[in-house]
Design goal:
The chain contains 3 helices and 12 strands; from the N terminus they run βααβββββββαββββ. With 242 residues, it is an alpha+beta fold. It folds into 2 domains: 98 residues, Nuclear Transport Factor 2, Chain: A, CATH 3.10.450.10; 91 residues, Nuclear Transport Factor 2, Chain: A (Roll). The strands form 3 sheets. Strands 1-2-3-4-5 form a 5-stranded antiparallel sheet, covered by helices on one side. Strands 8-9-10-11-12 form a 5-stranded antiparallel sheet, covered by helices on one side. It is globular.
Length: 242
């Protein structure tokens, strides 16, 4: 079994002075692996917080614009001040500001502090002359309980099997595109668990499974399916000890 080890190219602005922040140009931001790593690390935190607060309709976010990046070279790496916009497929926009540290030796990232604002698609009422348009915000949905589903139902329940196949395919494709798992064709080796959560007009199914590609890379996948994949995560499993 092969264990994937990813290497990121490290690019540091040589003209930056220790102790002082220097703003990076658009070209430097694009070429900066530490910046890209910190932007993705911050997004993971936002998604986790958003899930806990039920803030978003789905969690398939992408970076829409990095507004500014300031770098400060310090011992062991660099500090960054970053202002970035993210948007998901439900057109919910997030603008985040945070300070991050990138360790040049371990390639580790640390985000602290992080703040963000969510802009939902505006729902407006007719404006009266001379008065601003009112904007309504979505209410926070209740958190219905989850129930466990026996994984053997995948063999007899055609709807459940269809939702699983769709979610698995989408999670794999998006994870490969994001670079979190190796490229290749994956087959399911084990379905660990399935849970169901009732929601308005249907239910959310959370699947957890293991999959393997032709070169022996094993990945753990978790995805939520309703009529579409609402969220996904994937990571390479460490090789078992000999």
């Amino acid at each position: 079994m092969k264990l994937l080890i990813a290497f990121l190219a490290l690019i540091i602005c040589c003209s930056a002075q220790t102790g002082a922040y220097k703003q990076l140009t658009a070209a430097q931001i694009k070429a900066s692996a530490p910046t890209q790593a910190l932007v993705q690390a911050a997004l993971k935190q936002i998604v986790a917080l958003g899930q806990a607060k039920h803030q978003f309709k789905n969690y398939q976010f992408a970076v829409t614009k990095i507004n500014s990046v300031y770098q400060q070279v310090v011992s062991g790496g660099s500090n960054y001040k970053i202002d970035v916009n993210y948007t998901n497929s439900a057109k919910e926009a997030v603008r985040a500001n945070f300070t991050g540290f990138y360790n040049t030796t371990s390639k580790a990232t640390k985000i602290s502090p992080l703040s963000y604002k969510v802009q939902y698609p505006a729902t407006t009422t007719p404006a009266k002359p001379g008065k601003p348009t009112n904007t309504t915000k979505p209410t926070t949905p209740a958190n219905p309980p989850k129930t466990s589903v026996n994984v053997t139902e995948l063999q007899t329940n055609k709807l459940l099997k269809s939702l699983f196949d769709f979610g698995f395919s989408t999670a794999v494709q998006n994870s490969i595109a994001a670079g979190t798992i190796p490229k290749g064709t994956y087959t399911v080796t084990k379905v660990n668990s399935i849970s169901k959560q009732a929601v308005k007009n249907g239910a959310l199914y959370t699947f957890n499974c293991l999959a393997k590609n032709a070169t022996g890379n094993v990945v753990a996948l978790a995805f939520i399916v309703r009529n579409q994949v609402d969220a996904y995560s994937a990571k390479v499993q460490p090789a078992p000890a000999a």
